Amino acid sequence: MEEKTCCVTGHRDIPDEQIDAVKYALRREIVKAVSDGYTGFMTGFANGADQYFAEIVVILQKDFPELRLIAVLPYWKRMDSLCQKEHTNALLDACAEVIVIQDEYRPNVYAKRNRYMVEHSDRVIAVYDGREKGGTVKTIRFAHQFRKELREIPVGLNLDKSRINLGQNRK
């Protein structure tokens, strides 16, 4: 039986007063995914939502040892910078797998990482504030393009999303 995998996308700059609420909502979504049979949890390891997601999966591994945390890093030097910090180094050590998309930084490397995560996931959890630009909205568009289940956690400004073309009607 093939592993069911979930990935996260979200903002790096979550307002301080909303971090606890975001962590609570992420934990709820991850626990739901576990109850739905998911065992693979992919993160791009960016600051903010990605690392909160990783922290929660590591905590839940104590009760659910079958859970696999998978780091998907854009390029090798990102690994070096994560290993220099005690906290992120410990999170990386908890990963069952570390995937590096390419050797060196290139302008489109983060989009490649996000596309890889969506293509290799069944469910996408998005911590999203309604911005019309940036990696999170592009990843949400990938989720629609590849017809993946999308679970959204609204945060911050949460602009009127009816104005945003998330790619459902693109030609």
From TrEMBL:
InterPro entries: YspA. It holds the Pfam family YpsA. Gene3D superfamilies: 3.40.50.450. It comes from the Bacteria. This is DUF1273 domain-containing protein. It comes from Bariatricus massiliensis.
